[in-house]
Specification:
Blueprint (H helix, E strand, L loop, with lengths): L2 E4 L14 E4 L2 E4 L16 H18 L7 E8 L5 H11 L6 E6 L9 E8 L1
Parallel strand pairs: 4-5
Antiparallel strand pairs: 1-2, 2-3, 3-6, 4-6
Length: 125
């Protein structure tokens, strides 16, 4: 089975030696999506907007691979502070409204660019 590199200008470019996503067969594995506006490279300054931007970026990467958020089967949410969980969860619920994917939420010491959140996913096509 061949692996296909997924790249879209609709989401921020990778900030290191990795791909936005990899597609193997009918499975898409995304890299963590930071809350960076692709047009400006800037980040919002609150957890609600950072969550929204991360999920919009995730959506664009998943769509570039030929899937949709409805086909996401697993997400991992990395938070810089678990006290942001409720606010993140509220915004997350705007993107995943039913048939929810499995999810892990993990507090980490620090994220790239000092983001408050990073979200990765696995999707089926």
């Amino acid at each position: 089975m061949l692996k296909e590199t997924i790249i879209t200008k609709e989401a921020p470019k990778a900030i290191g030696p990795y791909s936005q996503a990899i597609k193997v067969g009918n499975v898409v594995y995304t890299s963590g999506q930071l809350p960076i506006y692709p047009e400006t490279g800037e980040m919002p300054d609150n957890i609600e907007e950072q969550t929204r931007v991360s999920l919009e970026n995730l959506k664009k990467v998943v769509e570039a691979a030929g899937a949709s958020l409805q086909q996401v089967i697993k997400t991992t949410v990395f938070l810089s502070d678990m006290s942001h969980f409720a606010a993140m969860n509220h915004v997350y619920g705007e993107f995943f409204t039913d048939n929810y994917p499995a999810r892990s939420a993990i507090e980490v010491a620090r994220l790239p660019k000092d983001a408050m959140i990073e979200i990765e996913a696995i999707a089926m096509i």
